Give the backbone structure.
Amino acid sequence: MKNWKLLTVLIAMLVFVLAACGSSDEGTKEKEETTGSTGKEQTESNEEASAFPMTIKSTVEGYEDVTFEKAPEKIVVFDYGFLDTLDALGVEVTAVAKGNFPEHLSKFADDKYLNAGGLKEPLFEDIAAMKPDVIFISGRQGDAYEQLKEIAPVVFVGTSNDDYWNSFHASVQIAADLFGKQAEVDAKLAEIDAAIEEVKAISGASDEKALVTLYNEKISAYGPGAGSRYGFVHSVYGFPAAAEDLENSTHGAQISYEQILEINPDILFVVDRLAATGEKSNISEAFNNDIVNKTNAAKNDKIIYLNGALWYLAGGGLTSELLKVNEIKAALQ
């Protein structure tokens, strides 16, 4: 009799435990149906929220640190390099500086993207009416900084000629931090690094020396050192400089055809500024003359005309930097 009573109690306890488990399973199932089977969406949302408030520290004199309480949504972009980066990362923007876009950014000419003005002439009233959460600028908009920051937080994202490659990485890191795109940024930087290694294999395979010039009806040449607009062709891509004593600056040193012959580069890179700014260019005719044709570069068919809009306007972006490397690689392979 006692054994029978004990068995009854044990069965009752077992039924209670099974009922409790069933209730727990139903609760878990209901939660999964609400939040997703793994709760991934909620986790990502929590991680994004935990990153804010976020302060973007300024490394450029004259520009203030900016603190964001959440990721910006209404975005105005003046720097084409940073626009390039945001586009590569799938970050939508509200307005851009309208100008002569390189081909890979041509979609931003569409009226879908509001007009923030020219690269050097912001439309202040129009921008204010947009009520942006952030305005991204670079050196071309430096004179407008004080007025723009009265409208919205302004973040400087331009590259520096003094340390081009590291400043490019710093600009990209701002996008990674603000918009939660670290994994995507790492993957794209790895792709750029791999392409650079291929170019360095080409530049290191011979003793050929290179000269980088810019054509704007007159010719400017660039030194290989810090401060030079195109010094990274030597310091990052590995091309030995045909002239070590050229001016290291943003605008370079004006030179003549005779000076090009005197330098006598094995490889002559030419950036077409006229094409970059939408003007009619006669660049191939300009460099096809009796003087330049005496250089090693001309004799070896190594006068390389670089995409003007890409090299003059949109450098410092995740896509543009890869395109620049691949353009040189394709020309020299």
About this structure: Residues 1-37 have pLDDT under 50 and may be disordered. DSSP finds 14 helices and twelve strands in the chain. The first strand starts at residue 54 and ends at 56. Residues 89 and 184 are 7 Å apart (CA to CA).
